[in-house]
Design brief:
Distance between the termini: 43 Å
Structural class: alpha/beta
Order of helices and strands: EEEEHEEEHHEEHEHEHEE
Strand content: 25-35%
CATH superfamily of the largest domain: Cytidine Deaminase, domain 2
CATH topology of the largest domain: Cytidine Deaminase, domain 2
Length: 260
């Protein structure tokens, strides 16, 4: 049985100089070690749950495993609280592009996967995203409302990010939450890969800002539209323009800005 990703803690809330006891629900954060064929690949801090999807999405984003077939997945360690803390991804050695990547990042905070890379490695080279339409303002608003309606962990703790993926018709395909915004994206993409439905993905939306890492994961998954609640970085905009990804940011209520 999967553990709930929130825990309750006693604390004192100070209001106008007066302290009073409170009990708050906080998002759980634990360390997850990911191994590839028994060799250490990376350690990421994550919110427990959907570890196979997280690993699947991360390995695609890092271009370590890009095959359509799903690799083997084994839970190798669980802590005293029942949370998964280590997993192993297995398969044919030739199917994994691990040269120079295994142990490149010992600790990957929120699974960003950028630590240790050179500037040349950040270029999104390859097939450009095909021509496509930008979603209507009404559809963008509907998608963000749908994601918000499914943010159960955020409703409990206020401490988690979310990522949701929709098809071309605006139908919700998957939504995942995690304390790390990059993890939420990896979990959402990875879940569709496990189910064989990634080809249906048309638009991915995120609850926070957009930096290069999110764009990179979107591109590796072949998703055409990326939309965010908050601001994009300069490199995110430049990368979306060169890769052919439609980038929408500051998506709040009935407003958003089209950057590419």
């Amino acid at each position: 049985m999967e553990q709930k990703p929130v825990r309750r803690y006693n604390a004192h809330k100070v209001v106008q100089g007066t302290a009073q006891p409170v009990e708050d629900a906080l998002t759980v954060e634990v360390m997850l070690s990911i191994y590839v064929n028994g060799e250490p690949f990376t350690i990421t801090m994550h919110t427990p749950g959907h570890e196979e999807a997280l690993a699947r999405g991360l390995l695609l984003g890092e271009q370590v495993y890009t095959a359509i077939e799903n690799p083997g997945f084994t839970i190798t360690e669980v802590n005293d609280a029942g949370y998964i803390t280590a997993v192993n991804i297995s398969g044919k050695v030739e199917d994994f592009q691990t040269e120079g990547k295994v142990n490149r990042t010992l600790v990957s905070v929120a699974s960003c996967g950028m630590c240790g890379k050179t500037e040349a490695e950040l270029l999104l080279t390859g097939v450009k995203i095909p021509e496509h339409e930008t979603p209507s303002a009404e559809r963008v608003q509907q998608m963000f409302q749908t994601m918000r309606d499914h943010q159960n962990t955020f409703d409990s703790s206020g401490g988690s990010h979310a990522s949701a993926i929709f098809d071309k018709d605006g139908k919700l395909l998957v939504i995942k939450e995690d304390i790390g915004r990059h993890n939420a994206v990896d979990k959402a993409i990875g879940q569709l890969m496990l189910e064989g439905d990634l080809e249906q993905a048309y638009c991915i939306i995120v609850s926070g800002r957009v930096s290069y890492e999110i764009v990179s994961k979107t591109y590796r998954a072949g998703i055409r539209v990326l939309a965010a609640v908050s601001a994009p970085s300069s490199l995110a905009v430049e990368s979306c323009r060169s890769a052919g990804i439609t980038l929408l940011a500051f998506c709040r209520e009935d407003k958003f800005t089209v950057y590419s």
